[in-house]
Amino acid sequence: MASIQLCTALANLVDGIDLGLFPSTFKYLETELHFTPAELGMLSMMGSLASCLSSVIWGCIADSYNRKRVFVVSTAMLGLMTLGTSRVDSFWSMAWMRIAAGFFVAAALPITQSLVAEAVPKNGLGVAFGTLAFASHLSGAGAAQLAARLSWRTAYRVMGTGTLGLSLFIWTFMPDVDAGVSRGASKLSLREWLNVEATKVRMVFQKRTFLALLAGGIVGCVPWNALSFSMMYFQSFGFSATDVGNMMALQGVGRAMGSYMGGYLGDVLAAKSPLHGRAFMAQITISFGMLVLLFPLYLLPWSTEYYNSYAASLFLFGFVSTWCNPGVDRPLWAELVHPDSRGTIVAWWTFIAGSFGSICGAPLVGWLAQAVLGYRPGGGQNTEALSEALLLCTMLPWALCFVAYSAIHCTYQFDVPQAKQKKVEQG
């Protein structure tokens, strides 16, 4: 079990690299390649949408084929795409690289979900998934630091090489728990396999708690996608690339620590209140995150003299806002369905919720800032435009997210007995 957790945690570094590196280069891409905020938002959407749309494919593969082999190949291909990004010189070449990277990075979530859910008992799921999120956010912070201290092309080369090395590490040291085990797909014709997958999907969507998680994810993914413009916002009123990189690194460390804490607190609250603990956890982290984010986006003066205040608020925001995924979402995904459907449930959540966030997050910030709020490259009103756009695209979606997660108080008590009965019937 320990070796599985270690390798999946290291593999989650890949997801963090992709999430942390691209937003860190927005200002450089605007300066060197003359990308506008709308174009940067479109590029962010393309990568995120490719990841979300392909998640269904990877989810089916994770439930049906040898996961170690799939993991190694997808990680190696992501490394090649990251290396290739260092050579782009136009919008469309960057777009194709973002799409390809998004496709391959999507493999990590459903595969790690199914592996960890198999290896870890129910009362330790939060901590286990918190460890994965810790690794992801830590690598994202490292990627932001690289982009701040090196040229953006060099940062992509370093991260691409590191990702290739990680795929070799997984191939060498990760136990092959599927070796010699038929996972079902090899015995079925294509039509039979598709029928099996359709049955899994139908069963997943019959879970009311999954629908509540999905509704929360649909609106909750929008703010995180929108915040890819936060580095550009801080640079707009005078912070240097190094200063912003340091602040983003602090936020990344806060997110890493908060993810582990969220996983632990989720397990504690679930033990004390099995039917309501994780729902309370979601309400707490959403409320805290909204409150703290008001400081860097609205309450603090737009001045580099307040560097320490911005850094502290970003660290605190990272710490308190990241408890949902490890402490609520992933443990509930693991509990609600049969082991053969664990990749499927996370894949469909990512496909629907993540796609909505990709379309309505960063692209909406870019469009609002440029078309509605008066953003102009080199203009004097850019900080205000970005601030207002970010506030609109974070506070309103998170308020709706709070309502959606509150529904789990009512749905979970009905779904848990059904899930246990299904697992008994299916063996």
Task: Write up this protein.
The protein is mostly helical and 427 residues long. It contains 19 helices and no strands. The model has no long low-confidence stretch (mean pLDDT 84).
CATH class of the largest domain: Mainly Alpha
Radius of gyration: 21 Å
The main β sheet shows up as: none
Q: Low-confidence parts, pLDDT < 50 over ≥5 residues?
A: none
The second-level CATH architecture of the largest domain is Up-down Bundle
The average pLDDT value, as a whole number, equals 84
What is the number of strand segments?
0
Provide the β-strand percentage band.
under 5%
Q: What's the helix count?
A: 19
- Our count of domains comes out at 2
Distance between the termini: 22 Å
Name of the CATH superfamily of the largest domain:
MFS general substrate transporter like domains
Shape category: globular
H/E element string?
HHHHHHHHHHHHHHHHHHH
CATH topology descriptor of the largest domain? Growth Hormone, Chain: A
Q: What class, by secondary structure content?
A: mainly alpha
User: Fraction of residues in helices?
Assistant: over 70%
Subcellular location: Membrane
GO molecular function: transmembrane transporter activity
Main location: membrane
InterPro entries: MFS (IPR011701), MFS_dom (IPR020846), MFS_spinster-like (IPR044770), MFS_trans_sf (IPR036259)
